Amino acid sequence: MSIRHTAALAALLLLGTAPFAQAADKPTDPQIAHIAYTAGVIDIEAAKLAIDKSKNKEVVDFAKDMVRDHEAVNVQALDLVKKLKVTPEDNPTSKALTKAATEERAKLAKLHGAAFDKAYVDNEVAYHKQVNGALETLLIPSAQNAELKSLLETGLKIFQGHEQHAEHVAGMLK
Amino acid sequence: MQNHHLWIALTLAVGIVPAQAETIQVTIDRLVFSPATVEAKVGDTIEWVNKDVFAHTATVKGGWEVMIPPKKSASLTLKTAGPVDYFCRFHPNMKGRLVVAP
Question: What Å distances lie between residue B72 and A62, B5, B67, CA to CA?
């Protein structure tokens, strides 16, 4: 992960583009596995915060759906990497995602009531959109192993579903 | 379709007992209802077979909802005629349609 890579990442972050978008280097399968798993963990952690904080049934139900689905995807991901004898490899994209998510969670943690609900759900829409873009344009096309690619494709459908579900919940909060 | 209507008309006219209720399977695999469109009749049962590790629903906006747990099946007996679109409430990009004859 070259200077060029880091510079591109910094530039994109400054422009407010997703941490994913630094397509200077094509990720390897071990990196893709790590990115996909990390993306799931991030959404689970945000959802757990929402389950703790929100009093809105729609929001809590949505958050529970996120925990359930992303835990199920990640179980499949772990089974697959074990089967393929691939060790997920940390990488700048995973690190950037985790950093951005930690900041977002800190922001959310300070909010309460309707302000929290709106910020959480809006972030869910944006986050799933971002992950979908990365899956479509970077992760799926870069994946070498057919089973990994197939799992990512299922993941994309799940995430697209979540994006629409989040949009629906966002619409109800208005 | 025309033949179908004719047949129904004929059946009704002659007073033959309609065909027995059937169970029609719809498989869910990787977030796809298959077949996406099912033709059935009132009294038939739709059985959704969920091959995914994810929970899904078959939900009609303003109507019924069937919960379909991961790796399980769930059924609904059709009570009203007419075409009806359904979707998964958890993953609204999953869509299906039932065309229910009287």
Answer: 21, 36, 10
Measured CA to CA in angstroms, residue A120 lies from A56, A98, A102, A127 at distances of 12, 17, 13, 10
DSSP B42: T
Q: Which fold has domain B20-101?
A: Immunoglobulin-like (2.60.40)
- Tell me, yes or no, if A75 comes closer than 8 A to chain B by beta carbon: yes
Nearest residue on chain A to B55, alpha-carbon basis: A69
B90 Cβ under 8 Å from any chain A Cβ: yes
Structure confidence by residue, pLDDT tens digits, B28-81: 999 999 999 999 999 999 999 999 999 999 999 999 999 999 999 999 999 999
Which residues sit opposite B57 in a β-bridge? B67
* Domain map (residue ranges) of chain B: 20-101
Mark out the alpha helices in chain B (DSSP H runs): 2-14
Residue A168 is nearest to which of B30, B92, B94, comparing CB atoms? B92
Contacts of A149 in chain B (CB under 8 A): none
As for the ipTM of the complex, it is 0.82
Chain B nearest CA to A163, separation (Å): 8
pTM of the model: 0.82
Considering CB atoms only, which of B54, B70, B93 is closest to A164? B93
A·B CB contacts under 8 A = 40
The radius of gyration of chain B from alpha carbons, rounded to an integer in Å, stands at 15
**Which CATH superfamily is A28-173 part of?**
Ferritin, core subunit, four-helix bundle (1.20.1260.10)
CB contact under 8 A, B54 and A69: yes
Which among A140, A139, A135, A123 is positioned nearest to A159, based on CA atoms? Answer: A135
Give the pair of three-digit tokens for residue A70. 């992303």
